[in-house]
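Same chain as my last thread, 247 residues:
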Amino acid sequence: MERVRIVAAQAATLAALVVAWDLTLRLGWADPLFVPAPIAVAGALGATAAEAWPRLGDTLLKAAAAYVIAVGLGVTAGLALGGGRSLYRVAMPYMVALYGIPKILVLPWIALVLGLGAGTAVATGALFAVFPVLLMVAAGVRDVDPTLVTVAVSMGATRRQVAAKVLLPAVLPSVLAGMRVAVVFALLGVLLAEMFAGVRGMGYLMQRQAVAFKAAELFAATAMVSALSIAVVLFLDHLNQRLGRWR
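reply #2:
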């Protein structure tokens, strides 16, 4: 029953936002050239979907590749960084500094090295997504009870075995939290590369719609990307809850 009330409240909130959006336009508080009416966006969904779906699939493939690379590198580097006291003290300030640099500044250099293709989009997405995973995993490792590591080492476990059998299960919540954040950053990096580096995909389509002042089509394309991104994040959140109960 509580679940039904939550869903009903969420649906009512969404409906209220759509009504407020429509009233804003009817009262002349926004220019329809830049902010189309909800009915116009709904009408543009059909026309936009025909061109958007293939491009969205292409963007998702690149985002998935970037995501896998980022998670693999982030978890591995995070375990190594958090597990070594000296390495953590030396390298952590550099990781934080790199994380603070606006990644879009690196996009022209990636395009210069890899060219205007899928490789640039994948590399940009991976660069955007790797640091949240790395930093969260490293912080999670630092919070692990050192007694667990001491016992494993005293029983003859190697560094790799300690990482796989002790650290990784203990930092699973941190890994999953980083994965939830990384999926959004990976998609964002790919879309930016498609928009600003001329890489074909959903970002390229949205940039073209913006230049042509096709506001309704742009809103429809944005809604498609947003809905897909939200669905992936909710799936990862559900996975996190299932694994949390297992722990």
